[in-house]
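Exercise 7. Given the components listed, write out the predicted structure of the assembled complex. Treat all entries as one system.
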Amino acid sequence: MADLIQPRTLKGFRDYVPSLMIPREEILQKARAVYRSFGFAPIDTPALEYTEILLGKGGAESDKIIYRFKDHGDRDVALRFDLTVPFARFAAQHVPALGTPFKRYHMGPVWRGENTAHGRYREFWQCDFDTIGTTSNSSDIEAALVINALLSAIGFERFEIHVNNRLILSGLLEELGLADKSTAVLRALDKLPKVGIEPVVEEMVLHGVDAEKGRKVLELAGFKGTNEEILAFVSAKFGNNPKAADGVKRLDEMLQVANQAGLPSGRLHIDLSIARGLDYYTGTIFETFLSDLPGIGSICSGGRYDNLAGLYTKMPLPGVGASLGLDRLLAAMEELKILGGVQASAPVFMVRFAGTPPGVYEKLAATLRASGIGVEVFPEPKKIGQQLQYAEKRGFRFALIAGPDDFASRKFKIKELATRQEADYDEVLIPSHLRKMLGMDGS
Amino acid sequence: MADLIQPRTLKGFRDYVPSLMIPREEILQKARAVYRSFGFAPIDTPALEYTEILLGKGGAESDKIIYRFKDHGDRDVALRFDLTVPFARFAAQHVPALGTPFKRYHMGPVWRGENTAHGRYREFWQCDFDTIGTTSNSSDIEAALVINALLSAIGFERFEIHVNNRLILSGLLEELGLADKSTAVLRALDKLPKVGIEPVVEEMVLHGVDAEKGRKVLELAGFKGTNEEILAFVSAKFGNNPKAADGVKRLDEMLQVANQAGLPSGRLHIDLSIARGLDYYTGTIFETFLSDLPGIGSICSGGRYDNLAGLYTKMPLPGVGASLGLDRLLAAMEELKILGGVQASAPVFMVRFAGTPPGVYEKLAATLRASGIGVEVFPEPKKIGQQLQYAEKRGFRFALIAGPDDFASRKFKIKELATRQEADYDEVLIPSHLRKMLGMDGS
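Answer.
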């Protein structure tokens, strides 16, 4: 026999074993249900694209991290590094036929050959949703409602959606005479929570901003208070600037509608300091923080942009959307110990005994599945202790135990594995009993 | 403005627009539910692996089609070309900790840089399931039950699972003194449906098989009859050969159990001629054909193998499994015209009028979503005709129409878009009416 090949994954890549994949599937399923409940439709795009398409929007940053190579036809191709650029290409190609507004969600892996420190992976999942083809504030507000529904559905109760509007920041910069420096100022401002005031001012000065004006920006952007106080503050200071006024109006409407739609008070939190580093945001900006794990950073971020696909089409496509970071979310759930550690994908385990006629277990299992109850039948008639050990290790909730005598008397034992409580039931009553014990029959 | 970049996908790659992605999500969701109902647990592996790992099992064929390149760390890496090889690597790495039997499903894209003729794509999805760590025939039988449940859940009624056992073919070859030529003979036999008898005999002769013996193989493998007749025929001809006898016994047990588990008669179809080209199958073999589209080929194939991961570990891992070809299935559904063409992911569309207080639509929509009814609210107060046109084009089932006066009187119009029937309902009755009209309240 030849030497063995060492089984291993690449640095920065990982396998999803069932105890990690089961929660991932659950989150994706919940996200899918929420996106659909708001009318977002699913799309997918290829993992591989022409490099030209993927790097069109990127800066030096994406050039460095992209997985790029020549394919069999000597084409310059690369793996997508986010879902936004492929969506821009998709929109340019398909939206003329599909029409606007176009609301899509897209969930899939992306690849970045970057530093793997701090639990970063080189392959990770994004779950994006966007509405394009409209500038209506209703879509910005809806994005906030979606983020709220998403995290609620996943099971979080304590989280805050930080929201800002770049129009306010733009108005502020106009009033300070810094409109021409806005990219540099906003990029610097975006680093405030990480690096603190002085390094941000320094960065602004490096870009030719007067230090005093820089401090003024930070002072205004750092204003804290209730949502109402912040909006009143902006109106008082910059109410005459049309952009700032429009930003205030849009945020104010978002607060009103969110309240009508049943969001808990305090869920939306106006934060003038969030700017997002990406140049293409032009209006509403979102970042979402878990109250019990603020340090992990924003788990769902996004905002409004003026034009999604300007590199590929002359059709103007304004829009708004956000991206849920699935792997960061899973890491958070691991840290908060709200992952179950369950490896079993069905709730019921069926022990197999020797000496039973062929098909008796499979028949009973088919009956249970027809009642909506997932059941795994052990493949070999091993010792019952070994089989139950397997079932316990995998996290099954119930074991169904039926030997040859039981099939004669048509009475089977249901054992709850956690409590080890067990009782005999008549064969015909097994499905309804299990449904009840699994809480499947509603209230 | 710079020149536009032409928006396009690579040859052999495609976008999934909503009308294609909605059925893909439905199939995946149904497959997931079926796999789980039998206790298979989900896993995922990286798209990129060390080339050494991926090519370990492949022959010259995989070498040619694999997407291979050097990563940033100068590692020789490649995109997976199937889910079996990564599973073998995964099993070698994780099964010692996870234990056996280990039942997993894995659904994801694979990449092959091959000829794109005949609607083949270079990126396509596979949905595999396998049970490893047991030689029990119960697992082979379960695989047949899973294939049956899978296609039934997806909505097919007319399909046949062709089943064979390589033990019978091996026994037959032993009896004909061709045991040492079995790989060549089985590879040739696998081409029978495509090329016909004489070319298969020719190929066998090229590999040193006596032409008369080759014809004998084809005659025996081509024997047709009922399942019972075929098993009786094999028993009569080769019943003394232990391998053939074991193969007959395993197939016979599969028929009995399938019958007990409620499979329609005729669903399983013993076909001694199916061999599958892949060398690693050693026992049961499956191929699945749609009765209304036999020409599209097998849409779910697999079988039993003696050792999954011999290249990566000394631990013997026998198993059985099969793979559902998602894109072939979608192509079949397109051809059979059983794809709905629906682009809407929610059933209800809500028209937005100007002049309503902020949040009234979002509040009503939140109430509907809380009742489990997906609803898309149009973002802009455009003309009602334009909004309804959008809703009809996308395939929404109902439109909810409520202008400022309706909010005052708390009566809204529900319009069924296909029939254009409409009626007014009191606000509080809207959710229950819609649930009823959507058939959501059970029987």
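Discussion: Chain A has two domains: 18-335, 348-437. The domain at 18-335 of chain A is CATH 3.30.930.10 (BirA Bifunctional Protein; domain 2).
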